[in-house]
Design brief:
Strand order of the largest sheet: 6-8-9-10-7-11
Helix content: 40-55%
Order of helices and strands: HEHEEEHEHEHHEHEHEHEHEHHHH
Mean pLDDT: 76
Distance between the termini: 59 Å
Number of strands: 11
Length: 429
């Protein structure tokens, strides 16, 4: 798509580039404070021309009756002379550090108007005391907000001091992922179950006509590396609906109530864009059986779990929202999560059999330049007990070994060496 251009033929400037930031506002605030201070100080000195008198000359002026009034402020004296030609009418002087008790009597005898004031700080000192603390507070607030955003992330969940309760779930659309069900090999039963959900989301009217209800929750269970998270990414690639992905540990913070607030915000976003899918990875980090925490029923993790249970119960028939969750430890989950009406469907993942291992090896190896001697069937026979993640590691390690040996293609010997390296360790002389 062609870029917008201005009338002069150049590229149209991005409006985001000119949005004011906290740094610019802080800089303008400092500059404004300095300008106001200089203007005020110059205005004070612009009032009348002033002459500086010594203390002796000051007393002589008083004796001669030329002084009309004085203002004493600490050790500083500012006064006005009676009408004088071609001379400043305002003078200043400084009192000596030694007390002069006769000065007041001298001023009274000559009818001088006396005004006494407490000694005040200079205009610059008052400016610093009045404005600098506010500048420091604003700078501290900005620095703290920036650090909080860095700590909590800057994605859709927001950050900063006022975005703590926002959901940190990542919103994934079909156009943002290149993983499909064709990239998931070795778990055909799980793919078959997920296809029903994807079909339901694409054509809900067909199922509603038959009286079918969409499962509220799908729990993916199995050992690590068997493809649970990969299958959830494939669902995001196949279903043309909003997909919100988050890890269970991202709900819990040191502040009480943050996890429950994030759950509410995440479900509110999903309901707003219904039909949609929520995927919670490692749900066992917040879904453990209640009553086992140090804080009892007031533990932050338990409050987060209670909020998830409440949100799943609150779905209306018009809100087509599916909650998918993955765990390696289904035995530690709270029974309330596993009952019908919450996670209605449970999909179990197992370590792949030989045929499944071969399919996984072929899936990961189809992007590599393979030599004619590569035999994935034989390699699948040697890799019994390996998960899908282990097999992907074997393929990647073989490609790295082939590159190290300056091969133009990945040979079977590279796969054999990669397998030995992973199982037995690197070769030592």
């Amino acid at each position: 798509m062609a870029q917008d251009k201005d009338p002069s033929g150049g590229q149209k400037p991005d409006p985001q580039q000119y949005q004011p930031s906290w740094t610019r506002w802080l800089l303008w605030l400092v500059i404004s404070a300095v300008v106001v201070g200089v203007w005020f100080y110059a205005g004070q000195n612009r009032q009348q021309p002033t002459q500086e008198l010594s203390y002796t000359a000051f007393k002589q002026q008083v004796r001669s009756g030329d002084v009309q009034s004085v203002t004493i402020e600490g050790q500083h004296v500012r006064g006005e002379l009676k009408a004088a030609k071609n001379k400043p009418a305002v003078f200043t002087t400084t009192l000596p550090p030694i007390s002069d008790p006769q000065l007041m009597q001298l001023l009274e005898r000559n009818n001088v108007t006396i005004t006494a004031r407490t000694e005040e700080a200079s205009i610059w000192a008052r400016l610093l005391i009045g404005i600098v603390p506010w500048i420091l507070l604003i700078a501290l607030f900005y620095w703290g907000s920036k650090k909080m955003r860095e700590r909590m992330g800057s994605g859709d969940g927001g950050g900063g001091l006022f975005g703590m309760g926002k959901s940190r779930a990542k919103r994934v659309q079909k156009i943002n992922t290149n993983v499909t069900l064709g990239d998931v090999a070795g778990c055909e039963n799980a793919k078959r179950d997920v296809k029903e959900i994807i079909d339901f989301l694409k054509e809900p009217a067909r199922y509603h006509k038959l009286g079918a209800k969409l499962p509220k929750g799908i729990l993916l269970m199995g050992p690590p590396g068997t493809g649970k998270t990969l299958l959830s990414k494939a669902v995001a690639g196949e279903a043309d609906v909003p997909f919100f992905s988050i890890s269970g540990s991202e709900f819990v913070e040191m502040f009480v109530g943050v996890g429950a607030s994030r759950v509410r915000d995440m479900f509110a976003q999903a309901k707003k864009e219904s039909p949609s899918i929520i995927f919670i990875d490692e749900i066992d980090s917040i879904g453990r059986a209640r009553g086992a925490g140090l804080g009892g029923g007031h533990d932050e993790r338990e409050q987060t779990l209670n909020q998830i249970l409440s949100e799943m119960d609150g779905f209306s028939p018009r809100e087509t929202v599916i909650v998918m969750a993955a765990t390696n430890r289904p035995d530690v989950l709270d029974p309330a999560l596993l009952r019908p009406g919450r996670f209605d469907r449970k999909i179990t993942f197992e370590l792949p059999a030989r045929a499944a291992r071969e399919a996984i090896l072929r899936t990961h190896g189809r992007k590599l330049p393979l030599a004619d001697d590569v035999d994935f069937d034989a390699l699948a026979g040697r890799t019994a007990g390996m998960s899908g993640a282990d097999l992907a590691n074997v393929v990647n390690e073989a490609a790295m070994l082939a590159g190290r040996e300056r091969h133009d293609e990945v040979h079977m010997v590279d796969f054999d060496n990669a397998y030995n390296r992973i199982v037995l360790g690197a070769q030592r002389e």
